[in-house]
Amino acid sequence: MTKSVRVRFAPSPTGPLHIGGVRTALFNYLFAKKHNGTFVLRIEDTDQNRYVEGAEDYIVESLNWCGIPFDEGVGKNEKFGPYRQSERKHLYKQYADELIEKGHAYYAFDTAETLDFHRKDHEAKGKTFIYNWHNRLKLSNSLSLSEDEVNAKLEAGDDYVIRFKSPQDETLHLKDSIRGDIKIDTNVLDDKVLFKSDGMPTYHLANIVDDHLMEISHVIRGEEWLPSLALHYQLYGAFGWEAPEFAHLPLILKPTGKGKLSKRDGDKLGFPVFPLEWTDPKSGDVSRGYKEDGYFAEAMINFLSFLGWNPGTEQEIFSLDELINAFDLERVNKAGARFDPDKIKWFNHHYMQIQDNSNLAIAFKNSRNELSEIDSQYIEMVIALIKERATFVSDFWDLSHFFFIAPDAYDEKASKKALKEGTADILTKVKELVNSIEDFTVENLQNTVKSWITSNEIGFGKVMMPLRLALVGALQGPDVFDIIYMIGKTETSKRIDNLISKSSA
């Protein structure tokens, strides 16, 4: 790759960053790092009517939490700033004017009422109204009006937009790094608005101008922008600029595989679609986030990397550095990628196992009032025993509560299965054995109790099931001898006595 790689993620601050946006940012980041390039964050806030307070900060916080921070953007290495389009609006008019001078764009004075009339008239005739070569000379614009008429309207302050003049009877040959060669008949293209009556550019003009001025080499964006590719190619040609390489990522589909993933799908099926929790500044409604739901950023990034990309191997677990080394746009699929809520849980379970237990202990301790006075090292030891069955920190209490508090009730089905005639005598003997061990280790506990069971030819189930029931309150949990060692002789004796007392009552 000869030219310096510069990619950009350019979200609009109209609300929280959707998981699809995170995937787009991730692929840009991976591509940039793979080629020792620059990952730029640009805030495309030209639509001030849809601007939402706090959304820009949310975007930055999300990228930082995900571990894919931008190299260049608002307040950071501002080589090509400003990076908010609203602060660049003084730039765009001159480029719109340049297109008019070159004959690639024109003023259009049509009122909203006029355009609405034409749309409805076409609909009544079973047609679709397209503002382009076949009707623009019949409408109110600088192509159909005289120069004097145009100047009079401009001087009078009449509202106008600036439209791109799409060519007639041409075939465009476009190239996309993911989708290959694309042919477009220009006769089906409309004359898109480039500059609005409110003095702000549309996405199309601002996007092209900014990408050019910021020296963006590759535009990696969502599939929803594919219909705009023809216009964007034409704009680069009209300005006489070299176009960047384009790559349009596949859609992220609903878990059913049909249709684009939406917030409604997450609400309905019980999973977040945003990286961080979001509180709507107007309604106060709170939307769940992956971070607050207990997901690790590494799990989410690993999961998202496989939504539309495949390394070509059987490997599924990738560190961020491994993703950077393996990533290639040629291995990004054209077809939509189905969002699987269970798969991201699978990734989270994996990353749970490699987390530092001391960090998990802090998170666990902070999540439960019952643990506030418990020694952190003890909590770490507990986590080491139970985390292989956990997907989230929120799972820890159900998996470990018996390490901290004695059971106050016993599972009914488990009791029927474990408690038999003679159980009280067996548990009393086990209690004596536990208390007799001087060098109190898991290994000595195991050897002492198991040797007694074997020498007395007692079925292991007759001993181990009621013993577990006494310690846990149910037939679940890690190794019985690990539990006994952790809670100690005195607590073990109390729990055995309690079960004997309640079962004989």
Automatic annotation (TrEMBL):
A motif ('KMSKS' region) lies at residues 260-264. Pfam families: Anticodon_2, tRNA-synt_1c. GO terms for molecular function: glutamate-tRNA ligase activity. It catalyses: tRNA(Glu) + L-glutamate + ATP = L-glutamyl-tRNA(Glu) + AMP + diphosphate. It is found in: Cytoplasm. The keyword ATP-binding applies. A motif ('HIGH' region) lies at residues 11-21. It comes from the Bacteria. It is an enzyme of class 6 (ligase). Residues 5-346 form the Glutamyl/glutaminyl-tRNA synthetase class Ib catalytic domain. Residues 372-500 form the Aminoacyl-tRNA synthetase class I anticodon-binding domain. Keywords: Aminoacyl-tRNA synthetase, ATP-binding, Cytoplasm, Ligase, Nucleotide-binding, Protein biosynthesis. Monomer. PANTHER family: GLUTAMATE--TRNA LIGASE, GLUTAMATE--TRNA LIGASE, MITOCHONDRIAL-RELATED. Belongs to the class-I aminoacyl-tRNA synthetase family. Glutamate--tRNA ligase type 1 subfamily. NCBIfam families: gltX_bact. Catalyzes the attachment of glutamate to tRNA(Glu) in a two-step reaction: glutamate is first activated by ATP to form Glu-AMP and then transferred to the acceptor end of tRNA(Glu). This is Glutamate--tRNA ligase. It comes from Psychroserpens ponticola. The lineage of its organism: Bacteria, Pseudomonadati, Bacteroidota, Flavobacteriia, Flavobacteriales.
